[in-house]
User: Which sequence fits this backbone?
């Protein structure tokens, strides 16, 4: 019989002891390529830039929105006055336009009332701008990081539109309770003692007691429909125009050209999606009501058209054009803030 007790395990020759016993170590194809090795150890580009994009979007959102808050409130009052019980049931005269709305609001409620709802708006807008911009860049880079015949899953304009729409919808779902709170607080007419809601917490707790969590998210389907159009055109149009114009001149666009592009894109996106925005605001106004004016989103479209006419879908659109200047500023300043952060090594 053979004595096999002294035989060594093959693992000593072909396992971890291979190099120690003089055998050359088996190397992968990427072991001698430092660039490939480094690329494996680093996360993808679309992920490494996410925190920077998040910070850049948050830097200027609240400041710009506070500046345009009076115009925003005038727009919301004009949009919702046909379904606002404070106007319909209180015997108040309806607003005739933006100037009349601002003048009467200052005269009846004081100048600070123009910023009513701005607290909830800033709380909503700070994460909204930060998430919208960072997610837009994230989704766009993911859509363009795949492989197809031209090296991308989608062509430039398609990827830009889809990234903007997806970012807008994702953000809206996250911050929707703050969005509806901002609308209801801004549309709450009167001085402090006769107002329906005293603040964000009071609104959310009141609606939750009356309608449950469904009331807090009332109008979300209509809001998502409008968000696809608005954010898709807002982000997708701006990024696409920047790319087209930059290719023509072979350099980065100067600030004034980006401002012109941003203003044109923002105004167009706002006007095209404005009827959808009007419907979503009307649906928001029904939370907490025992007798609702509209059964659903489709019923809201039908009743506004039959009772008020097509022009009612665009009520407050003029003030929205002025307000779009702030949204255009955010598009331009976002790129400038990112440049500053790159320069500062952030």
Assistant:
């Amino acid at each position: 019989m053979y004595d096999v007790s002294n035989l060594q395990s093959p693992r000593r020759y072909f396992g971890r002891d291979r190099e120690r016993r003089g055998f050359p170590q088996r190397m992968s194809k990427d072991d001698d390529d430092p660039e490939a090795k480094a690329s494996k150890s680093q996360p993808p580009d679309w992920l490494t830039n996410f925190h920077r994009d998040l910070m850049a979007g948050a830097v200027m959102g609240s400041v710009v929105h506070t500046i345009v808050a009076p115009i925003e409130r005038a727009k919301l009052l004009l949009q919702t006055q046909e379904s606002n019980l404070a106007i319909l049931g209180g015997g108040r005269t309806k607003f005739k336009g933006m100037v009349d709305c601002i003048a009467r609001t200052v005269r009846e409620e004081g100048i600070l009332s123009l910023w009513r709802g701005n607290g909830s708006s800033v709380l909503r807008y700070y994460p909204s701008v930060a998430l919208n911009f960072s997610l837009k860049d994230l989704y766009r880079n993911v859509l363009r990081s795949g492989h197809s015949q031209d090296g991308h899953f989608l062509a430039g304009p398609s990827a830009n539109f889809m990234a903007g729409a997806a970012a807008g919808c994702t953000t809206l779902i996250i911050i929707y309770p703050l969005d509806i709170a901002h609308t209801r607080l801004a549309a709450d007419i009167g001085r402090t003692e006769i107002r329906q809601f005293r603040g964000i917490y009071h609104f959310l707790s009141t609606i939750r007691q009356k309608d449950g969590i469904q009331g807090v998210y009332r109008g979300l389907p209509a809001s998502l429909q409008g968000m696809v159009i608005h954010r898709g055109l807002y982000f997708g149009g701006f990024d696409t125009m920047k790319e087209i114009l930059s290719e023509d001149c072979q350099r980065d666009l100067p600030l004034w050209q980006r401002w012109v592009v941003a203003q044109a894109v923002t105004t167009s996106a706002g006007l095209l999606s404005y009827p959808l925005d009007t419907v979503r605001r009307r649906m928001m106004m029904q939370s907490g009501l025992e007798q609702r004016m509209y059964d659903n989103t489709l019923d809201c479209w039908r009743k506004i058209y039959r009772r008020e006419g097509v022009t009612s879908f665009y009520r407050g659109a003029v003030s929205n054009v002025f307000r779009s200047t702030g949204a255009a500023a955010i598009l331009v300043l976002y790129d400038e803030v990112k440049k500053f952060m790159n320069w500062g090594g952030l």
In short: Residues 156-186 form the longest helix (31 residues).
